[in-house]
Design goal:
By secondary structure, the chain is an all-alpha fold. 73% of the residues lie in helices and 0% in strands. It contains 10 helices and no strands. The radius of gyration is 18 Å and the shape is globular.
């Protein structure tokens, strides 16, 4: 089938503010306009990327039962900017965790252990970086963005039912964030 591809420009701060305000209202996530304005000014990218960042802010706050104040938002933004992990680091760390080689992670293997590990790595890349689905797919063996999205969704569902995968994701996330902080402290 043929289609028309139209590039969309990322929204400006005022459009991001309106999107964030509507999103917070729909999710019943109580954020003052001052905080929404700060987020609108600091978060860049497309609407899905901005909403993804909001989920990264909302989920831990709801889990911990705490209000989001300006200080928490500033810390979140600083941590988010600092979390620009190279995809290579995510792939290597995940491969080690699952006792695989990097070439397995980036290769064409469809063996279940490799696919699960690769999907976890792509899920972490989506969670911890600002890389697009296309960029993640290209790194992991030239995969299509829809393959990456499918792997991320599959991993998210698997993490809800499989405590081993859930624990692996959490351990890897902590390890990767620790590596990033250590690297920045040395710089």
């Amino acid at each position: 089938t043929a289609g028309l591809a139209v590039p969309l420009a990322p929204p400006g701060p005022s459009a991001r503010f309106a999107v964030l305000q509507r999103w917070a209202h729909l999710r019943q996530f109580d954020l003052p306009d001052a905080i929404l304005q700060l987020l609108a000014n600091e978060l860049g990218g497309t609407v899905p990327e901005v909403l993804s960042a909001m989920l990264q802010l909302e989920v831990p706050a709801r889990q911990d039962g705490r209000k989001v104040d300006v200080q928490a938002v500033r810390e979140f933004l600083a941590e988010r900017d600092a979390s620009r992990l190279p995809l290579h680091d995510i792939a290597v760390t995940t491969a080690r965790h699952f006792s695989l080689k990097l070439s397995d992670m980036r290769g064409a293997s469809r063996r279940r252990p490799v696919v699960v590990a690769r999907d976890v790595a792509m899920f972490l890349a989506r969670m911890l970086t600002r890389q697009s689905l296309q960029q993640i797919g290209e790194y992991f063996g030239g995969r299509d963005h829809t393959t990456v999205l499918h792997g991320c969704r599959k991993t998210e569902k698997l993490a809800q039912t499989d405590p081993v995968i859930r624990q692996a994701i959490e351990q890897l996330r902590r390890r990767l964030q620790h590596q990033t902080r250590t690297r920045e402290q040395r710089a």
